[in-house]
Amino acid sequence: MLASLLAGCGGSNDNAAGKNNPDPSGSNASPSASEATAKKVKLTWYLVGDTHKDMDKVMAEWNKMLEKDLNTTVDLKFTTWNDWQTKYNLLLTSGEKIDMIFASSWADFYKLSKQGAFLDLTKLLPEYAPVTWGNVPKDDWGSVTVGGGIYAVPNTNPEYTPSGYVYREDWRKELGLPEFSDLNSIEAYMDAVKTKKHVTPINGLVYDNVNVLFKSWNDFQMIGGTELIGATSYDTPRDIQIVPFTDKYEAWVKKMKEWADKGYWNKNSLSSKQEAGDFIKTGQGAIYWRNPSSAGGFINEVKAKKLNMDIGYFPFTRFHNYVMPTLPSSNAMAIPKSSENPERSLMVLDKLRNDPAYFDLMTYGIEGKHWAKGKDPKSIVIPAPGVDLNVTPRFDIASWGWRYEPNMLKEEGGWDGLDKLKEEFKPISKPDIFGPIYMDYDPVKTELAAVNQVFEQYGKPLMLGLIPDVDAALKTYRDKLKKAGIDKLLAYVKEQSYQYFDEKGIK
């Protein structure tokens, strides 16, 4: 289905502006770039996730620069991670005046674009973000093109972001356990941590830590943003099933009941508000799911705080020996339709992506406080010498939408595992044939809402073994899903997926 939505539109002034925009200046509707900053404006931007304790200080510095260069200031707001998606969708449907917002394929970018939530930037980009217009690759522009219009500016920072576990490597060695390689080795590790260290292996929030392991171990490829319907493996993309009705799911939840009864996580794990990684730092946990990039950030923080522990990382790609690169549309910045200053917002983003002074401040924080220059121009020291990370935490807001690889800095003395993993991933990389599938659930929105409610009430406790009888709970779950309309949902997902596969020649 996305073949038409993701039609390429060009990544340079030659092949993009001319093809899609016969009047790239957009002069019929917008002022010229030189005129656009004549009036001082205050922009409202939104990012997902949480703010930082020093955000006001960082913004004060940024706004000084913006006021001088672009006669602009920005009020930067955050959704927080608590029920972020509900808040995010409300922001875009309430009519609130927003000049720029983080956008992503995993935050309904394609659906929202089709529904008219974002502004078409095709005519504005060459005039108001010329540097970005010239350095974003053609295919990346294609990934944020919907129905012929460009609805976001993707970041330019190619990544591999498979799931994996960070864990207490020092404990693994101390307990004489084998390196992680499969489910049995992970189970042996958690069992030893629980029985010999008397530590809850996955403490705090647990569901995601278990669910990512389930999907990765069984090679389920969820489709369309659901947790219930997916292909049975990468190699069989057309074998799309209701996952809780499979034999693999049944075997898994029985195993999870065993793990829960052994105390690998707490009984209150579904109501916990604290991340499992927080408990690792305090010596009260041992496992936390992360992608390679966030694992690096976690490990670097442990090192910088001089915590007395050695952290390892195991990518789940090793279960099936392949990895899919992150889609360019996974991290982007879009301008909502409600914006009153789209031209100025693009000018700010162009500066932010491409001017190292702007980029460093909003990506790494204040120099001399959150970071310092390293031994070479491409390295960075976190925190700055003499600064205590317990008092001044690393600057880690969701800056993903404007990241540009040539401006990224490497943390000096930090984890070198990320570079090694990239080399490991390159020869086993396969294209992401599932992520681009756009699913407009409006025709089955009633069934989707009902199914999701059943999933929350019955599916999550079952996945974590927090039920007395697995067989009875599984039967109830399946019956409830049937009554909620899961079969109609499956038929719709199959229909949309097969259309996309047919257009792309995917067997």
TrEMBL record:
Gene3D superfamilies (UniProt xref): Periplasmic binding protein-like II
One Pfam family of this chain: SBP_bac_1
InterPro entries xref list: Bact_solute-bd_prot1, DUF3502, SBP
Region annotation (Disordered) ranges: 13-33
Domain of life, per lineage: Bacteria
Biased composition (Polar residues): 22-33
Signal sequence bounds: none
Domain DUF3502, chain residue ranges per copy: 439-500
Matches recorded under PANTHER family: ABC TRANSPORTER SOLUTE BINDING PROTEIN-SUGAR TRANSPORT (PTHR43649:SF17), ARABINOSE-BINDING PROTEIN-RELATED (PTHR43649)
Name the UniProt record assigns to this protein: ABC transporter substrate-binding protein
Organism of this sequence: Paenibacillus helianthi
